[in-house]
Amino acid sequence: MSAMLLSLVLLLAGCGAPAALSPAGPQAGQIAGLWAVFFWVSVVVEVAVVAFLLYAVLRARRPVLTLPALAAEPLAERRLTRGVSAATALTAIVVVALLAASILVTRALGALHAPQALTVEIAGHQWWWEVEYWDPVPSQRVRTANEIHVPVGEAVLVKLRASDVIHSLWVPPLHGKKDLIPGHATSLWIKADRPGAFGGQCAEFCGYQHAHMRLLVIAESRGAFDAWLARQRRPAPEPTDAQARRGRDVFLTGPCAICHTIVGTPAAARLGPDLTHLAGRTTLAAGTLPNTPGHLAGWIIDPQRIKPGVHMPSIGLDGADLQALLAYLGSLK
Fold first, then answer.
1. Distance of alpha carbon 228 from alpha carbon 141, whole angstroms
2. What is the residue range of 9's domain?
3. Contact 235, 263 (CB under 8 A)
4. How many other CB atoms are found less than 10 A from the CB of residue 240?
5. pLDDT digits (tens, 9 = 90+) for 41-97
6. Three-class DSSP category at 85
7. What percentage of the chain exceeds 70 in pLDDT?
8. What is the model's pTM?
9. CATH of the domain at 296
């Protein structure tokens, strides 16, 4: 059974349509439409082949005609020639039609653009996504990680780069895959037609934790997006209680400040994700864990157990310092 028919069986069995077949944007819709064309053409071909095979098996046996016999029977020879010619011509037409459909969809995918569009740069790291919202004023640029917010109904230019190895950005409900190649800048356009949270994934094997390199694209109204972007531009709030103030001191005097940035504090390193608004994110460790105090504590104490091979080292803290650090990080919204 072909892969196309296997997909149909899984869908009919109640496994649900994958996200790639539930498009939320025009480009994903084009890709899903092309998939449907290939799928149904494959189904028709598969059914036709099986039907001819069953006909050949079930029909009454007849004497096998040898080549001399065929030569002696011009009618049988002409019938065979017409059948082979028709099958060849039909195959050529189907192949050309599928090629034309692929070219049209490829051109449609590259047609999306808009003047003065929101520009987002995404950098792939082992194994997380760095996200930067561009602005003509450098101080107004926003950096975050593993979570992208976009306004609904607007085209967004996404610039892509890789800092170490080849990665591939894939958000199935919005677009197809696009590689991030070290030393080679690439880009794509995305547009969300409806609000929602759409999961994405690195689609190019990039190392041990490739499967745990996820991201989330949140499409929201323009008003909600503007409010979110305004919050992201603010520096980290000042701690309001003694526990959180102690946690800030733990962060700034420990190894955390060597790798991470918190805008509004002396911590300005770029090796790891920007943590200025960490508490406002949905997940930790590029979609590996939900963003809760318990999971955050486990991630700080022993990240290698959760995500073996990750570049973040284990941080040895006593209970009091850990609770203080959690209180501080929990205030970064």
1. 13
2. 3-109
3. yes
4. 9
5. 999 989 988 988 888 787 756 555 555 555 556 666 777 778 778 888 888 998 999
6. helix
7. 89
8. 0.82
9. 2.60.40.420
